[in-house]
């Protein structure tokens, strides 16, 4: 199995930057796809950015050009660099990985980290 712990959230003014980190432990060798999601109050959880098992990256239209997803395999860490933050980016951010365990691909989620952008 895989355990995920996020950090790096906080309160920032509009136009500012934050970098979220997600440290993976456990069966990290089996991780394939990774992604960052967010959920604002009263809204559904949505994909922000992802890296597929083939290494392709994709971003939500709302964050293209502002956010960058990356991974450091040596540190078992995922990152989300967020620049030019807007109040509408306020949400709880979650990392998610797909990992092979006990005969099948499974999804693992972190506990979430709050990002609040003030206007």
Structure description:
With 119 residues, the protein is an all-beta fold. β9 and β10 form a beta hairpin.
Number of strands: 11
- Helix-strand pattern: EEEEEEEEEEE
Largest sheet, described in full? 7 strands, mixed
Number of helices: 0
Radius of gyration: 14 Å
Report helical residue fraction.
under 10%
Instruction: Give average pLDDT, whole number.
Output: 95
- Determine the strand fraction and express it as a percent band: over 45%
Structural class estimated from helices and strands: mainly beta
> Any idea what the shape is?
elongated
Low-confidence stretches: none
Question: What is the straight-line distance between the termini?
Answer: 40 Å
Question: How are the SSEs placed, and which strands pair?
Answer:
Blueprint: E1 2-7, E2 10-13, E3 18-26, E4 31-39, E5 46-51, E6 57-59, E7 67-72, E8 77-82, E9 91-101, E10 104-109, E11 113-118
Parallel strand pairs: 2-11
Antiparallel strand pairs: 1-3, 3-8, 4-5, 4-9, 5-6, 7-8, 9-10, 9-11
Q: What's the short story on this structure?
A:
0% of the residues lie in helices and 61% in strands. The protein has strands spanning 2-7, 10-13, 18-26, 31-39, 46-51, 57-59, 67-72, 77-82, 91-101, 104-109, 113-118.
